Amino acid sequence: MSEAPPTAVFDPLAHPPKLNIGCGWDKRPGYLNVDFQDFHEPDLVADARDLSVLPSGRYTDIVAQDVLEHLEREEVDPALTEWSRLLAVGGRLVLRVPDIIGVARVMADLDTVDEQRKLIQNLYGTQAYTGDYHHAGFTELTLRHSLHQVGLQVVEMVRKDEWMFDCVAEKVVDPGRFEPGPLPFMRLCDHDQPGGTIRVVPDDASSVDRVMSSVANRVPAGPRQSARKVWRPIRRQLAKRGLV
Fold it and tell me: What is the spatial distance between Cα 14 and Cα 54, in angstroms, rounded to a whole number?
């Protein structure tokens, strides 16, 4: 009887010191692409929560886009601990996760069933197959705190498509005390944004004046507000009053 061929031993040092965790079909050149689904044909089939096959402190860049929300809430911080272990000091973790407050802001401006259902699917996953269920969501405060707890300092955080965070965090030697500082993405109402203005309407104002002022209170200062977002609440409120 012939012997079975020896199983190949994975050698992490044969790959670049960059990781793309939960890569799916987004396999990136110059990265070790990791996914738990073998049909994606990653460089390494492994669970994002347990990457013990990889050495500590080797990696300069880790990308984990649209990954953390697929983990159960109690698994998020352990996964971040594992990813922090892999990073060299000064290395960066690039995340994309759902922003719960951002979802609420967008949902308030969607006025069709199809639009709202599409956003709900984005929030909870397609649920079409194992692994494509979302179990966790984030706010700016909870994300910053979780990263700080594992030795990662946020260096950039922006909203992506108004309902997700693109976040870059850097591995530091000593994160110090958690002091989140200003939290601009924690505000639900537009008029609470820095630079916004709350307008007061006299009691004897016309219905149209009241509608326009109410909408103006929700529009932030600056050029980034789209015409679509401005018009939708105007149309809804005018329609309620029989003015259109």
Answer: 11
Q: Give mean pLDDT, residues 122-133.
A: 88
Other Cβ atoms within 10 Å of 209 Cβ, number? 12
DSSP 196-224: --PPP--TT--HHHHHHHHHHTTSPSSTT
Counting every residue written for the chain, the total comes to 244
Dihedrals phi, psi of 85, to nearest 5 degrees: -55, -40
- Would you give the DSSP letter of residue 6? P
Q: What is the residue whose two structure tokens read 């983990």?
A: 71
Bridge partner residues of 156 (DSSP): 168
* Residue 158 burial (C-beta neighbours within 10 Å; 0-12, 13-18, 19+): exposed
Domain 12-176 classified CATH 3.40.50.150? yes
What residue ranges do the domains of the chain occupy? 12-176, 189-244
* Closest CA relative to residue 69, chosen from 12, 126, 107: 126
Residues 65-88: tens digit of each pLDDT: 999 999 999 999 999 999 999 999
Say if CB 31 and CB 18 are below 8 A apart: yes
Give 62-118 as a 3 state SS string: EEEECCHHHCCHHHHHHHHHHHHHHEEEEEEEEEEEEEHHHHHHHHHCCCCHHHHHH
What is the C-alpha to C-alpha distance for residues 169 and 238, in angstroms, rounded to an integer? 45
Mean pLDDT across the chain, nearest whole number? 83
Do the Cβ atoms of 119 and 163 come closer than 8 Å?
Answer: yes
